[in-house]
Amino acid sequence: xxxxxxxxxxxxxxxxxxxxxxxxxxxxxxxxxxxxxxxxxxxxxxxxxxxxxxxxxxxxxxxxxxxxxxxxxxxxxxxxxxxxxxxxxxxxxxxxxxxxxxxxxxxxxxxxxxxxxxxxxxxxxxxxxxxxxxxxxxxxxxxxxxxxxxxxxxxxxxxxxxxxxxxxxxxxxxxxxxxxxxxxxxxxxxxxxxxxx
Length: 197
Known about the structure:
Blueprint: H1 2-23, H2 31-34, E1 37-48, E2 51-61, H3 64-71, E3 76-87, E4 94-108, E5 113-118, E6 124-127, H4 130-138, E7 139-147, E8 156-165, H5 175-180, E9 191-195
Antiparallel strand pairs: 1-2, 2-7, 3-4, 3-8, 4-5, 5-6, 8-9
Protein name: DUF4390 domain-containing protein
Organism: Candidatus Methylobacter titanis
InterPro entries: DUF4390
């Protein structure tokens, strides 16, 4: 009983500590000024065997509030959305492939380590520094996105990439804050990259 009360008290203190930021937040301040957000810096699609594979570099810059939540043991889930599109002049682009990569990053106080898990592959890696943990999610190499059999001669293709922080995966008491506090607006925009044969 005491442990339950203690945990609730700690959670309330943590959330109360975030409230002043919400009430005084200036939503006109851009992420670039604040220095946080996610950017897909570059992407390249190459042919390997019978498949096109993606190599990309992503820049994760966490806000102060996201770092504090992470340090308090809150896991952060990141989704890298990858769509392969057939570009058309007179109709909406046709989505051929909709795939992605999902990462979970969490701080473990007892080990004093950051743990990154690729949710699809099940790979888990530990890091002593947050920067190293983020770097491990920043580099994508040889991720299969489309078979060459899908590629028709004479058609134009592109791949669209977006990285999002899954705010719905945050602990329930933190979600309302994450939807009103600009420091939790960490997702990238969609970026379009050509796919050439």
